[in-house]
Design a protein that fits this description.
It is a single chain. By secondary structure, the protein is of the alpha+beta class. The protein contains 4 helices and 7 strands, in the order E-H-H-E-E-E-H-E-H-E-E. A 7-stranded mixed beta sheet has the order 1-2-3-4-5-7-6. Strand 2 and strand 3 form a beta hairpin. The longest helix has 15 residues. The radius of gyration is 14 Å and the shape is globular. The two termini are about 25 Å apart.
Length: about 140
Amino acid sequence: MNIITYDEKYKDDMISMVIDARTALGLSATVRDDLYDVQKNYLDKGDSFWLAVDNDDCIIGCLGFSRIANTNEAFLHRFYVKASQKRQGIGTKLLHTAEQEMKRQGITVSKVHLGAPKEQWFESYAFYPKHGYIEYEPRYMRKEL
């Protein structure tokens, strides 16, 4: 498995993986508009987006971040790992990659907005604290980098 910077050739595979990941969580198959043009919505703005690619060249995860204007903070976005690939360290590798790039860009605070109700997003509420994130208000966590 490799973590790579977003490549347009994987767009359809990424969208399919996100739909599958959302469906496995019991969520709607809705894909946010920003994922249909990662180049414009992340990379062209100086933000970042990564893909986890397995040995068969299939997408098994994704994660992006966007800076919060006029701050040294960024929000994580669209963090998904293929349901059948969870608990194998893929999410941790994606998160560490994002955090390292944030630090490189001078970002000192990573934030995440979590879904509600908490019971439906239990994986996120368990994952982030294991990686040093703390809840600073309902549905929001942050980490000093």
